[in-house]
Amino acid sequence: MAEAPKLPKLDLPSVDCTLYPRGFGFPVYAIAPSRPDIAYTTGRGLLAQHVVSSGKQHWSAWTRVLRYSQITKHRWIVYYCLKSLELIGYVNVDYVYAGDLHMSCSTAGWTFMSAGGRVAWSSRKQPITSLSGTGSEYVAAASTAQDLIWIQGFLSELGFIEIGPTTLFTDNQSSMTLAKNPGSHKSTEYIRVKYYVIRGVVTSKGVELKSVPTGEQVAGVLTKPLGRLKFPIFVSGMGMY
């Protein structure tokens, strides 16, 4: 996918209105759950939001995804036999133009890795329009923490008991400060109370927030198109070979 695709939002489809939904639906259902490298492209962040009203540009973009999937069909997630199955998370948000030129909603993505490969991931639009990058990252961290609680419970049922907090990497220092400081912040008063769950999880030592350089933020592949140079590096960084 091009580094900055501009897919128009149409009021009415300019091609057969059944072509794109039929061609898009089943392959995504079959492929996407096992391919985190195309989660953003096929999700609500990009192609899925044009199912109702699509045109030639959307169909062309989708055929490129199919070609990529065919060429890389032998790519898989690699796990290693390690003594410790430490769970490590990454969370990222695309706040450039709020991630969406049409609705001004950011796209958030998170991934958790263990034994060298991804074990869970998500790429979806945020339900609110944030007024700053800090707000977007904070909301994303809170939503990720909620999903982490379920993942930790699931792994516990399988007998994998993690000792200590789960490390969650973010490339936004301000959101880390906000999560670690329970005080009131004027610039984020619009954020709903439910998103303050991240503060409780950090305080109870369930999650330890750490900073990671943007160039090493592997969750970036779940929030934005990266282009030919960055994309392979980020895909390898999440354990796919």
From TrEMBL:
Protein name as catalogued: Retrovirus-related Pol polyprotein from transposon TNT 1-94
Native species: Rhizoctonia solani
Organism lineage string: Eukaryota, Fungi, Dikarya, Basidiomycota, Agaricomycotina
